[in-house]
Amino acid sequence: MTTPPQTTVGAIRDGSWQRYLTFSLSTWVTIGLLIVVTALNVALQPTFFTTYSLTSNFATFAPLVFAAVAQAVVVIGGGLDLSIGSIVALASVVALTVMDGEPSRVAIGVLAAIVTGVIAGAINGFIVGVIRLQPLIATFATNSVFAGAALVVLPKPGGMVPSTMTTGYRSLVIGIPVSVLIVVLAIVLYWLLSRTRLMRHIRAVGGDRSAAFASLVPVVRVQMASYIVAGAFAGLAALAILANTGSGDPFVGSSMALDSIAAVVLGGIALAGGRGSGIGAVAGAIILAMVSTVLSFMGVPTTWRQLASGVIIVAAIALSVVMSRKDQR
Amino acid sequence: MKKSHALGLAAVAASAALISACSAPATSGSPAASSGGDGPFTIGVSNAFVASEYRTQMIDAIEQTFDEYKAEGVVDKLVMENADADVNGQIQQIRNLINQGVDAIIVDPNSATALSAVFDEAISQGITVIAIDQAVDSPDVLNVGISQQDLGAASAEWFASAVGDGASIVTVEGAAGNPATDARWAGAEPVFAEHNIEVLTHGDGGWDQATGQTVATDLLATYPNVDGIWTYDGMAQGVLRAVEAADKTDSVTVGGEARVGFLRMWTDLVDSGSDFASVGVINPPGTGATALHFAINLLQGKELDQSKVTDGHSIILPLDTPVTNDNLADTWAGVSDQADTYVLDSILSADEVAQYFQ
Question: Choosing among A56, A84, A165, which should be mutated to test the B contact, i.e. which has the most B CBs within 10 A?
Answer without folding.
Answer: A56
